[in-house]
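batch job 7 of whatever, protein = Nicotinamide riboside transporter PnuC
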Amino acid sequence: MNFQDWFKLFQEQILHTSLIEWLAVGFGVSEVLLAKKNSIWLYPTGIISILLSMFLLLNVKLYAETLLSIYYLVMSVYGWIIWKKRKQDGENQVSWSSNNELTIAVLISVIGFGVLYLVLKHYTDSDVPVFDAFVSSTAWAGMWLLAKRKIENWIFLNISNIVAIPLLFHKKLPLMACLTTFLFTVAIFGFLDWKKIINKSRLKLV
């Protein structure tokens, strides 16, 4: 398929995009921009996007990503509570992960991938078990780090995003794929912004 054929297909998919997908994308964009600004409002916005996305993902048989959305929902509530508590305690700054936290994040990715792949391969009709499992497991780790306000969350989330983009195009969810491309770009700047926050915090301590 050449570029013109691909672009024509993309236009057709956009024209047939449902209202639910448009809303999911809109709230998803708001969520990541709020996360970049280190704002607690990323969580209520994200919860709306998650609920809408779950419907779309189930409809195209991306079961691991649907499970990921449920995890996102739980972690969003958890993160919202943690961020609110830290704000009240005056501890709302981001930080680098400890070696122990990074180890946990890697284990979440590896073990999560293994479990999800086996479940998808043997108990569902998924036609993309490897990619679906990889996207979900690495994002699990990223969301766990985000809840703890650790800067490495952007790295894990972008590892997930870079595989999710072609997967979503393959599943004919063009807006979701475009959203993920946007998230990938914003995550790069989010990492840089959070790094500046950490550096400023260190300078105040000197």
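notes: Residues 111 and 137 are 8 Å apart (CA to CA).
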